[in-house]
């Protein structure tokens, strides 16, 4: 009888552990990074990124760990549809001074990645219509253990539009 109850208890604990892990994996991300269009002007081409706080408390992070800080986001600019080529990146050394950014619950901070600084060929580009930027950001670098990875593709000719509203990315 004791063995039977012990194995039932062990089975229940295993089942509870598996259920808890599954339920945890379905929780929303504590933070979300999303592209917010491209800004072109004054000799600059920038990818705008929104960083959402989806938790129920304000968070404070060093800005160098946000998507636009200290080369935190991987970038590739690709020219030409089909058979094209990747633009050559140049990575400058950044040593940003510490600066905290506080983002309230359900709010976001926005920053810009200056693309022609990393991809000097953009300065000479006459048309941006056939250029696309791919980006990836691992939010775990913020120190939030359950944060995920984010990324996407944005045509450089894509300026913010009404579809790029400030609707919450927290789901």
Provide a descriptive summary of the structure in words.
With about 170 residues, this protein is an alpha+beta fold. It has a four-stranded antiparallel beta sheet, with no helix packed on it. Strands 1-2-7 form a three-stranded antiparallel beta sheet. The longest helix has 24 residues, at about 1-25. Helices cover about 15% and strands about 35% of the residues. The protein contains two helices and nine strands. It has one domain (about 30-155): Sandwich (Immunoglobulin-like). Keywords: Signal.
Compile the SSE list and pairings.
Elements lengths: L1 H24 L5 E11 L2 E10 L5 E4 L10 E7 L5 E2 L13 E4 L4 E7 H4 L12 E8 L10 E7 L16
Antiparallel strand pairs: 1-2, 2-7, 3-6, 4-5, 4-8, 8-9
């Amino acid at each position: 009888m004791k063995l039977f109850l012990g194995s039932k208890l062990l089975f229940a604990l295993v089942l509870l552990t598996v259920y808890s892990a599954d339920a945890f994996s379905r929780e929303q991300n504590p933070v979300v990074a999303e592209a917010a269009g491209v800004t072109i002007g004054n000799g600059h081409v920038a990818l705008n990124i929104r960083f959402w706080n989806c938790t129920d408390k304000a968070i404070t992070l060093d800005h160098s760990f946000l998507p636009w800080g200290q080369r935190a986001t991987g970038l590739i600019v690709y020219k030409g549809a089909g058979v094209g080529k990747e633009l050559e990146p140049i990575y400058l050394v950044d040593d940003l001074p510490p600066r905290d950014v506080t983002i309230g619950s359900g709010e976001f901070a926005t920053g810009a990645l200056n693309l022609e600084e990393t991809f000097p060929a953009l300065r000479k580009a006459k048309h941006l219509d056939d250029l696309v930027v791919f980006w990836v950001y691992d939010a775990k670098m913020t120190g939030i253990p359950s944060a995920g990875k984010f990324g996407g593709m944005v045509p450089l000719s894509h300026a913010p539009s009404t579809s790029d509203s400030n609707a919450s990315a927290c789901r």
